[in-house]
Amino acid sequence: MGPFKLLIDGQLVDGASTMSVINPATEQELAVCARASKAQLDQAVAAAKRAFPAWRDTPIDERRKALNAMADAIQGDLQNLARLLTQEQGKPLADAMGEVFGAAAFFRYFASLDLPEKVIEDSDARRVVSRRRPLGVVAAIVPWNFPLILMAFKVPAALLSGNTVVLKPAATTPLSTLRIAELVKDLLPPGVLNVIADANDLGAAITAHPDIRKVSFTGSTETGKKVMAGAAEALKRVTLELGGNDAAIVLEGNDPKATAGKIFAGAFQNSGQVCIAIKRAYVHESLYDAVCDELAILADAAVVGDGLEQGTTMGPLQNKTQFEKVLGIIEEARGQGKVIAGGLPHEGKGYFIRPTIVRDISDGTRLVDEEQFGPVLPVIKISDGEDALSRANASDYGLGGSIWSKDLDRAMDLAGRMDTGTVWINKHAELAPNIPFGGAKLSGMGTELGEEGLSEFTQMHVINMAKG
Ligand code: NAD
């Protein structure tokens, strides 16, 4: 597959240079793809700017049709896209298929929304209406853990509301996004969607670009802060979906086996590289040993390997930097708790770490307090839900969290006081295109998905007319 070119002004073009993309399961070069220069970024922004007035004035039904056609194109290439995603990102093929399918569904969801005019007042004195107008050129910056689904949080919402887009995937996972550029290039007028790839070096130029009106960013908190600072000069809008350290609070009365299975799934999906993965489990002392034992059984049973191989349930870490970071966190945790499953990288090629469970560990350690973003879960013993809630809330992060209890009133009470954007009860990490999503504290700013997410791509425009 290939040749993995940039999409600028409706044309697939070579990059000013090229870069190598590594398969994390083999550490071999998977493909060489286009790498944009700063001049090509400027060309992409200029094309988006030129395309904006006509796209803004295109009837919303036409924009809807374009989004549905894009969804069809993505879904129609399901097999190719999923294989590519597995090879560049590492996740098992079934999960990659789910991501591609999900991305198409998100395009369809946004195509179903409307941006209706609202009558705020219609009295003898005046008629006041509000409308939602597009902003102009929107930059969409995406990380490497879910290249396609996170792209689909942004691109269809931006396009439906009449903006034009410059999309940039992460340096280590550009291929599936460039493949989509190739698939959809004739479905939109030139310049409406531009896709560039970089070697992690164009972000600052994007956020500071005077002709970009909004940056929709998903990535780490550290980079998010730079995005906000870079956007300040031109006072461009930002939506920041950043890191997290989600706590799961498991109260007395839960069935250890059933709960452990769900906790395991919530912690280890995508090898733990999920912003809303369970990153610390606070488990009541009455079921602590049983939950730890069950988690260890599930960890030992995981089939860790190349995502293309049938039967693999967990792939590698996506890149070497993350692999080494997670190994470092595990090493440190060894002296602070008891590793009861996993804990070692496998021998040979590939950034594989077996799912790792650490028990008898507490807050104040790097594994519990930081965002590990990898396949290692600390399990902390608690004697009281209130105490667990205050420990969960002590984090600088506030993305998601969950309460696990048979007593739903109690669960609702604790959930209502958790300082996060989302709290799940008796489940974790469920996202859907119609459910707004966003982080509190250092986990971000603004909302994606749902009607609220759509409106963030618009400017409120009020017309206030005198009567009588
Ligand atoms: P990252 O911040 O290193 O990179 C994210 C993107 O930003 C990449 O495309 C990168 O090239 C670009 N970038 C780099 N420097 C930039 C700059 N100065 N200005 C603008 N853009 C720049 O993050 P990552 O390591 O790729 O992803 C992992 C992180 O993303 C984790 O912290 C994870 O929790 C977070 N994440 C958050 C969500 C969410 O919705 N809240 C979802 C997924 C991942």
UniProtKB/TrEMBL annotation:
Pfam families assigned: Aldedh
Keywords: Oxidoreductase
Residues forming the catalytic site: E241
The keyword Oxidoreductase is assigned to this record: yes
GO terms of molecular function: oxidoreductase activity, acting on the aldehyde or oxo group of donors, NAD or NADP as acceptor
UniProt keyword Oxidoreductase present: yes
All residue ranges annotated as the Aldehyde dehydrogenase domain in the record: 16-462
PROSITE patterns: ALDEHYDE_DEHYDR_CYS, ALDEHYDE_DEHYDR_GLU
Family: Belongs to the aldehyde dehydrogenase family.
Protein name: Aldehyde dehydrogenase family protein
Species of the source: Phenylobacterium glaciei
The organism's taxonomic lineage, starting at the top: Bacteria, Pseudomonadati, Pseudomonadota, Alphaproteobacteria, Caulobacterales
